[in-house]
């Protein structure tokens, strides 16, 4: 199948200075194999759009320590002390975005919408410098859509066409990030033949997905509930 | 785990109604599910789950089934899963009945500061501002005093605001306050303090009824 590539191949699609949309919430639903490849590369000046920067030395935290990053955009960086340190040392730029605004900005990026007005953060430091508009007596601020050069996402299963299903809350930002990158690379635990996934369970249809990489850290499946 | 925190969680639990969709923030709010008794509510977790159940035993942990505090959880009967953008359609769009959250400060009209301390690095906001903007009702569950002994309920915020939308209620280990356009109203004392003693450890003035009864905690 043409979408399945070797994990080292992903470096051919990522250039210095690119903006990468990376799925995950903490370490859950995070493409750890793809991040490892990137962390071992000499890519530079990358901007990461992701809810967090993983944890110290784990997930995107590893990419931070590898020196590949210039900037991070996301909602919560306080849990990774390395990110806080890199920011206070002036080695990492951070743009803080409320979590719902981040999700909607990426959704708009993928949906061909340039921006949107939201009530979130009105009257706060996050709203400084942003256009305000009143609709039906309520104040909203303008937020721009977010798009990426490459999306790195994590799913549970792909079929050979690139249809994706996710593991529980591992879906998080992955489904929207699959829509907003020029190139979308999905890391998956398992690949099945087209037709084997129930169309009722497919969350990300194959047209969004350009390449598939097998997860090298497939976890032991445990029974849930 | 301190008794005061449990006391606050128990009192907040009394405010919850059957059938409500509730988002619980980090800290004290995470204790509330233990004190729901027979009440049936639906817990929404902003990372993509409606119908959060209790912590699983060791064999059933799946780190792709976690809470917004990144702890392993289970799914309750009737649970559903969705992505982050849909989760904030629920939150921002006014589909969540109640958000219970902590705060660094609350002003006399219920404006909330719960994401940043002045002079410190401001690197985490998470979903707090979305919940403040969009939840139908907001209860602040917090210790009465900050760790440095300063009151959390203040006349005017000195910490950065989380949004213009006001909280409906503040519950501490000492008291229950309601916020209205007139300001703060004391509706219940939860400790041995007299109203005057409570005034001394509170940074904003509050209205109260003369027949204010003391409740057993």
Short description:
With 225 residues, chain A is an alpha/beta fold. Chain A has helices spanning 32-39, 60-65, 81-88, 99-111, 174-177, and strands spanning 19-22, 46-49, 69-74, 93-96, 115-118, 132-135, 138-144, 148-159, 164-165, 181-192, 211-214.
What does this molecule look like?
The complex is a heterodimer of chains A (225) and B (217). With 225 residues, chain A is an alpha/beta fold. Chain A has one domain (7-214): Glutaconate Coenzyme A-transferase. Chain A contains five helices and eleven strands; from the N terminus they run βαβαβαβαβββββαββ. Chain A has helices at residues 32-39, 60-65, 81-88, 99-111, 174-177; strands at residues 19-22, 46-49, 69-74, 93-96, 115-118, 132-135, 138-144, 148-159, 164-165, 181-192, 211-214. In chain A, the strands form two sheets. In chain A, strands 1, 2, 3, 4, 8, 9, 10 and 11 form an eight-stranded mixed sheet that branches. A three-stranded antiparallel sheet of chain A has the order 5-7-6. The longest helix of chain A is centred in the middle third of the chain and has 13 residues, at 99-111. Chain A starts with 18 loop residues before the first strand and ends in an 11-residue tail after the last strand. The mean pLDDT of chain A is 96. Chain B is α/β, with parallel strands linked by helices and 217 residues long. Chain B has a single domain (3-214), classed as Glutaconate Coenzyme A-transferase (3-Layer(aba) Sandwich). Chain B has a ten-stranded mixed sheet with strand order 4-3-2-1-5-8-10-11-12-13. In chain B, strand 12, helix 4 (195-200) and strand 13 (206-208) form a beta-alpha-beta unit. In chain B, helix 2 packs parallel to helix 3 (128-134). The longest helix of chain B is centred in the N-terminal third of the chain and has 13 residues, at 3-15. Chain B starts with a helix and ends in a 9-residue tail after the last strand. The interface between A and B is large, with 55 and 48 residues. Chain B: One of its GO terms (molecular function) is CoA-transferase activity. Chain B: Keywords: Transferase. Chain B: This is Succinyl-CoA--3-ketoacid-CoA transferase.
């Amino acid at each position: 199948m043409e979408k399945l590539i070797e994990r080292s191949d992903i470096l051919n699609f990522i250039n210095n200075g690119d903006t990468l949309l990376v799925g995950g919430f903490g370490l859950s639903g995070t493409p750890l194999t793809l991040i490892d490849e990137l962390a071992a590369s000499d890519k530079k000046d990358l901007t990461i759009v992701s809810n967090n920067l993983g944890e110290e030395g784990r997930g995107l935290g590893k990419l931070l320590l590898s020196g590949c990053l210039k900037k991070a955009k996301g909602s919560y960086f306080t849990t990774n002390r390395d990110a806080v340190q890199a920011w206070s040392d002036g080695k990492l730029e951070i743009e803080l975005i409320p979590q719902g605004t981040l999700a909607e900005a990426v959704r708009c990026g993928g949906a061909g919408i340039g921006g949107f007005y939201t009530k979130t953060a009105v009257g706060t430091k996050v709203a400084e410098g942003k256009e305000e508009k009143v609709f039906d007596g309520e104040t909203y601020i303008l937020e721009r859509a977010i798009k990426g050069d490459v999306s790195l996402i994590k799913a549970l299963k792909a079929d050979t066409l690139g249809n994706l299903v996710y593991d529980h809350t591992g879906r998080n930002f992955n489904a929207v990030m699959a829509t907003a990158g020029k190139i979308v690379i999905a890391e998956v635990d398992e690949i099945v033949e087209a037709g084997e996934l129930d169309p009722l369970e497919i969350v990300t249809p194959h047209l969004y997905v350009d390449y598939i990489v097998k997860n090298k850290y497939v976890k032991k499946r445990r029974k849930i509930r | 785990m301190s008794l005061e925190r449990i006391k606050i969680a128990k009192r907040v639990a009394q405010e919850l109604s059957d059938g409500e969709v509730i988002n619980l923030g980090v800290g004290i709010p995470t204790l509330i599910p233990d004190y729901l008794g027979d009440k049936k509510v639906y817990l929404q977790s902003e990372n993509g789950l409606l119908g959060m159940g209790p912590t699983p035993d060791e064999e059933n942990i799946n780190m792709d089934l976690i809470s917004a505090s990144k702890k392993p959880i289970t799914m309750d009967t009737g649970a559903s899963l969705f992505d982050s953008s849909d989760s904030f359609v629920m939150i921002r769009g006014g589909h969540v009945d109640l958000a219970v959250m902590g705060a660094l400060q609350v002003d006399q009209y219920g404006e909330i500061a719960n994401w940043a301390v002045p002079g410190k690095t401001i690197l985490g906001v998470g979903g707090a501002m979305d919940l403040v903007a969009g939840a139908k009702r907001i209860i602040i569950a917090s210790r009465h005093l900050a760790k440095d002994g300063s009151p959390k309920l203040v006349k005017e915020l000195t910490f950065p605001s989380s949004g213009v939308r006001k909280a409906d209620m503040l519950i501490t280990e000492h008291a229950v306050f309601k916020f209205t356009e007139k300001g703060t109203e004391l509706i219940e004392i939860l400790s041995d303090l007299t109203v005057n003693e409570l005034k001394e450890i509170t940074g904003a003035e509050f209205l109260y009824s003369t027949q204010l009864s003391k409740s057993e905690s």
